[in-house]
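Support case: nicotinamide-adenine-dinucleotide complex. Customer-provided input:
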Amino acid sequence: MADIALFDRDAVLAAVSPAAAIELVRDGFVRYASGEWAMPPKVYLDAPPNGDFRAMPARGGGLAILKWVTSFPHNSARGLPVVDGAIFVSDAESGAMRAVVNAQAVTALRTGAVAAVAAQELAREDARTVGIVGCGVHGSWAARCLAAAEYGPGVCYDPDPERAGALAGELGWEAGVLDDVLECDVVTCVTPGDEPVVRASDLHAGMHLSMLGADAAGKAEAEIDAVTRCALFCDEWEQASHGGELTGAIRAGRVKREDVTELGAVMTGAAPGRPSDDAVTLFDSTGLAIQDLAICHALLEGATGGGPHRTVAL
Ligand SMILES: NC(=O)c1ccc[n+]([C@@H]2O[C@H](COP(=O)([O-])OP(=O)(O)OC[C@H]3O[C@@H](n4cnc5c(N)ncnc54)[C@H](O)[C@@H]3O)[C@@H](O)[C@H]2O)c1
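Agent response - structure generated as follows:
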């Protein structure tokens, strides 16, 4: 077997900036929506009572990946990461293994990046202020990517005031209460998804919501009554209908396939985006392997400068 590149967390973050991640993820959505890249649905392996494992394959641009990754939503309380795992990268033409990549860093970048891409595609043209609900690992990366996309100033809320304060301090934003956050133009929720943080009464004309925390069945960050009042978008229908923010409303028979537009279709011009300046748009991110694939391309091609990495012969 040929030498395999190993990209640890630092190598990934050194190679791909938030601004680069936004462009890479944007490109991945367009390639998938236009049929160039392939992605079977992710497979969930429940690990009760603490979380689940996911196997996430994708192929495109000469590479094939399998991401093996966790969501253990309450791991932070025991000092462990919520998301952990690795991405195995192969050459799609020969089948040869090319790399093993730290999944924490790739997930952080591509999850943050999709919050920025969704805002660019769906928020009002004049949207600027950002509200972050949940300032843990992925809420912080969403904020960094939104800032890199020139959104802000922002307000950060977390029941742990140290987390909200640290993120606000890093970006020159403010920490605030949930009501302050929900008044912003672009609101991004990245909580464990145990309880609704957005109610129907919180919606205001022209708002954009990105819901990132509810990425498996049984998790939700908005009341169903709030979801049904929004113009609805998702990253991928199969995943969103079974394991995302929209799942509760779909199971209740209050949202149907024709009510939801995939973000990639908006980006290729196949479907309209925001229906009006006054509409409230809601984007359900469940997390896609094509986002990971897009970041892996940059790592292997050194397209963004390349990061320091090691090689091993397995
Ligand atoms: N959509 C995606 O692609 C994607 C990617 C990665 C992670 N996730 C999901 O995002 C969620 C968060 O992951 P993480 O790694 O950032 O976890 P984390 O533990 O680092 O952060 C979660 C934060 O939410 C805060 N929080 C808890 N309840 C809250 C509430 N009611 N209101 C506001 N904040 C609250 C916590 O204090 C914590 O700071 C998980 O459910 C994870 O599965 C989704």
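The chain has a mean pLDDT of 95.

Case will auto-close in a few days if no follow-up is received.
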